[in-house]
Amino acid sequence: MRVKLLRFLAFISAFFVIGSFMMLIGFLFYHGTPVLDAGLFFGETDPIDAIIGARPVWDGIWPAFAGTLYLIALTMAVSLIPGIGCGIYLARYAKGKKKEMLSMAVDLLASVPSIVMGLFGFVLILLLRRTFAPDATTCISLAAFCLALLVMPALVVTTRTSIESLPESLVITGTALGFTEHQLLRHILIPAAGRGILGGIMLAMGRAAEDTAVIMLTGVVVNSGLPAGLGSKFEALPFLIFYTAAQYVDQNELLRGFGAAMVLLVLSAGLLYAASKLQRTMEKRWKGAK
After folding, report:
1. pTM exceeding the 0.90 threshold for the entire prediction
2. Of all residues in the chain, what percent are helix, strand and coil, respectively (each to 5)?
3. Residues 228-266: tens digit of each pLDDT
4. Using an 8 Å Cβ cutoff, are 271 and 190 in contact?
5. d(Cα 117, Cα 68) in Å, to the nearest integer?
6. For residues 237 and 263, is the Cβ–Cβ distance under 8 A?
7. Which pairs from 44-49 meet CB under 8 Å and 24+ separation?
8. What is the per-residue DSSP string for 214-276?
9. What number is the average pLDDT over the span 282-289?
10. What is the end-to-end Cα distance of the chain in Å, rounded?
11. Inter-CA distances, 252 with 42, 144, 148, Å
């Protein structure tokens, strides 16, 4: 009887998760799909002129879409090496008190709310203005730096967990073959842990793409066009969706917000697919498959 009850509760839980997901996706598809066309991205502007930045886009989401891609790329450029490197250090080199303190620091960083991280970035720019950079202002590089601090714990934890969960026989085999620690990491441990590490990267990219609280205080604006450089203001899809939901004035503007939500969803799915393809490629290469 208990087994049947447990199985029934597990089925209900699984149905609830899948049902909630399908309802969300269905709602977005119903409202967002009809407006998914070139006009949603570029409005009245010629697509080629918009893409190369020859003409501004006033009534499309292209600047926000491009700004989101720039922001993700900058965030990962800042966070990837320190995040994965710290995970490797915790898994293979850190010992005793040093390991405990570093693990606690990562846990504390992971517990910081995104709005607090945004406030940190805002206060940081005020400090810079009052000291040795009076012209400093909120911009895309500041937003990327704060987002990198936000997503770095995910990279650290997934890298550390992936390496520590590998069977000890891999280390013993590598050592028996005469591998140095560097060779062991490069040729055995990191490729074997690639699935988990890529999962962490995917998680970090998804978080960087969707977070709104951080960028609200560090440089995002409603209408700035394509990012002109590392020190410029920028647009981003999550803030566009938030602003449209709060300030829309007619039905067309609301539908454009649903379209932007669909694009953000497709972008996240695209990142997931790319990470999955990269993961399979790495596994085949490591296993020697053609």
Report:
1. no
2. 75, 0, 25
3. 888 888 889 999 998 888 888 888 888 888 888 888 888
4. no
5. 18
6. yes
7. none
8. HHHTTTB-SS--S--STTS-B--HHHHHHHHHHH--SHHHHHHHHHHHHHHHHHHHHHHHHHH
9. 62
10. 50
11. 15, 31, 35
Q: Which residue has the tokens 């704060």?
A: 146
DSSP string, 163-204: HHTS-HHHHHHHHHTT--HHHHIIIIIHHHTHHHHHHHHHHH
Q: Determine the number of helices (DSSP H) and then strands (DSSP E) in the chain.
A: 14, 0
**Residue 215: CA atoms inside 13 Å, Cβ hemisphere, count?**
31
Query: 246: how many CB neighbours lie within 10 A of its CB?
Result: 8
**Backbone dihedral region of 182: left (phi > 0), alpha (psi from -120 to 50 degrees) or beta?**
alpha
Residue 127 CA from chain centroid, whole number? 27
Query: CB under 8 Å to 134, separation ≥6 — which residues?
Result: none
Average pLDDT for the chain = 86
DSSP state of 206: H
Q: How many residues does the chain have?
A: 290
Q: How far apart are CA 258 and CA 242, in angstroms?
A: 11
Q: How far, in Å, CA of 158 to CA of 155, rounded?
A: 5
Stretch 194-215: mean pLDDT:
84
The tokens describing 61, both together, are 């989401």
Host H or E run for residue 207: helix 194-210
Q: Which amino acid is at 221?
A: V
Looking at residue 281, its amino acid is: T
Helix (H) / strand (E) element for 97: namely helix 96-110
By CB neighbour count within 10 A (0-12 exposed, 13-18 middle, 19+ buried), where does 110 fall? middle
